[in-house]
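Subject: Interface between my chains keeps coming out wrong

I've been trying for a while to get a sensible model of this assembly. When I model each chain on its own everything looks fine, but I need the whole thing in one frame so I can look at the contacts. Pasting all components below, labels as-is. Any help appreciated, I'm running out of ideas.
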Amino acid sequence: MNYVKDMREKLNIEYVKSELIKTAYGGKETFLASLHPRTLIIWYLFFGIVPWFIHNKIVLSCFLVLMVVLTIMARVSPLIIVILCAGLLGEIGFLLLVSLVFGGGLASLLPMFWLTVKLAVIALASIAVFTSMDPERFSDALLSFGVPGQASFSVSFGYRILPTLVEEFQRVFLSYRLRGKAPETHGIFYWRTASYYLKLLVLSFYPLILNSAKRSRTTVEALETKGFSYSFTNAEVKKMKLAHLTYTYKDPLFLIGTVAYISFAFWLGTFIS
Amino acid sequence: MSRSSLVQLSNVTFTYPGADRPVLKDINLTIYEGEFTAIIGGNGSGKSTLCKTFNGLIPQFYVGDFEGEVILDTMKTSDHSVAQLSRNVGYVYQDFENQLVRPTVMDDVSFVPLNYGLADYKERGEWALNITGLSALRNEFIWQLSGGQMHMLALAGALAMKPKLLIIDEPIAQLDPNHAKQVYDILKKLNEELGITIIVIEHHTEFIANYCKEVILMDQGELVWKKDVREALSQVVELVQRNIYPPQVTQAAYALLEKGHEDRILPIQMNEAITHFSPYSQRTETLPPFTTTSMAGKRELIRFHQMSLEYRTLKKERKQVLSNVNTSFYQDDLIALVGNNGAGKSSLLKLIAGIVKPSDGHVVVLGKETRKASPEVLSEAVSYIYQSPEEMFIDDSIRKDIEYYLRVRKIPDYELIVDKLLADFNLVDIQHQDGRLLSGGQQRRASLAIGAAMNPAIILLDEPTANLDVATKQQVIQMLGKLQNHVQTVIVATHDMQLVAEWANRIIVMNSGSILADGNRYDIFGDEDVMRKAGLVPPQILQLSRALCLAPPCFTIDEFTSRLDVVGAEGVQLELCKGYA
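Reply #2:
Try treating it as a single job with all components included. I did that and got this:
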């Protein structure tokens, strides 16, 4: 009973919101955060794609070790880690269930383990990069790669309205609760209460979407009155927007270090097998 | 005096697609440089639409039939993009929180000059923050600001370009009197020292009287006139016919005019009113003695016992919202919770509804400890009406919204109850419309009906008259009267001192998280210390009657006019009170 209550206090929307914001805008002073966002994106393009095509267990293990180290260095929020682990374990569990149903047996566990390692490498790479690069830097990096201004701005704006949306979601959810009727008994394993809340969570999205659609009218107009579209006609503006991004000695160091580590991993992989 | 024109409208007519009548009808208007002009008119009279023609939003962003010509400075608005036109026009929306598009204060305020490629965009941002008093917040995130701070930031963002024209749609709708005055003082400074032309859409005629120089009256899409502020606000009959109420002192002066002098220029500011009324005399008949209502013997509904509330900020700092609150609410109480922004009024309401739980002490509602009761359980007795009605619309028609509470509880024959409520709150014709698409006044009425459908013993309202024009506000006050018959106590958190003076029988003054004073309107409005400390400004008519030494003071215009007699009549000659002369 107390345990459930404790969980409920930990896992309220307020906590999720503050963790999300901290993850996005934490203003970290970690090593990864001090890199130029372009460096991080180039780095990520490798680790987001290449592991899919690697089947060598030694190489994958080396990659995983690197990712774990980087994730620790990036001081990722515990919430994100918990969600990731839950996702990965759920994945294994579900695949195992499917394989058992179709007569696969426990022997299928091993290949699934290696698939999970692959997923973990990619997931951890994403987490390490995106928690180290706030949405503003990410958006500017996209702009510097030549992505159109509207697209790079929408990344930054998407994050900017996230807290506002969460707050509004909370209020709509509360509207349902203040006029709704909770089940009188919790049911076995709290299923009645849980299904009541889940239903409200889903229902709350509809008013939220309608309200946001209505409000975006002002935002679109306001952007125009703020000279947003004017900024694309002027190349100087782009230069000014990107002026705060600078390369330091850390950027080549990081890329060279990574290349060296990757070469070592591949060498080790071929050497052992 | 030759002034150069800044905005020139010639024969402008605009019709929204599908509408049967134009929203702007053949408008001819010149705005000169250096003006400080208020646009007045009822909800839906075309005030915002008019302003949106100045920077080309209409017709470029709104499809519809547009005729006529608008010239901004030297540019024809039809020949330039909104972004080009906006270089010299700052626009602050009524829903200003949606115009903040960047994550931090500094980013947002320097966004406009950055877009226009001005190298000194940061300095401009700093300058605008400095003018609006936000410098200390430059590194804060937008979502951590209070509503008032967001409004200031929207203003600062519009200012950073040092525009020639600044348009503000309802600059003080959600602000307490002190903050409202701050906003207008800033606007005045901008107008006088920097020569920025300012146009406000405003319902508060007392602020218009004190700050604006000219007034434009709109009615159903037509521009009725543009007049000097003094002349404009003296048109009492014409304004009241359109449900616009001039300052209380002006209304009182008009009511006491002798026949045949109705076209006189009337006092519009307090000091003028004091001079104006000084020659009048007071009627001698004695007033019935005022008896205070006693709290004793009434049923206690809600009790706060040594209650404190705190929360943690993102940076893990503790923030005390309410501290050591001890009070009770009784049957038949009509309570107004007053105090400046951030005094803890909304938090107090949320504690009663069980939305937030006390950090310390107890809140007991109808015998239930709120800490142990879920909001669903408390909602059987308490209904909480949000400040913004939109967040109460959870279904696709207001009829369904009103019946939601009854339906999920499977109340027999709930349709009959809903029909009655729809009739009571004047919503029958619009019952099948989506609440989000209604006008501000309709939304407010719908939200009251939703609250009443819960058949609560206690009803809580957060700023029920914010953002409403005076006519709609009067309707809401009437509706509050109707609510009284349905419930045992009504608690309203508000900045609207007129509502407080005319409606409440008990006033609780909050100040930085605790209760500063508790009493009837004579106790509270009579205590200047409390009023000053809590940043409250009494209704104008009350200030006037005090300045004229009327005892007891008057709370409504009718009270005031019935107590005064014509100039030179027998009776007690009015004298200025000491301290007011």
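Reply #3:
Confirming on my end. The longest strand of chain B covers residues 300-312.
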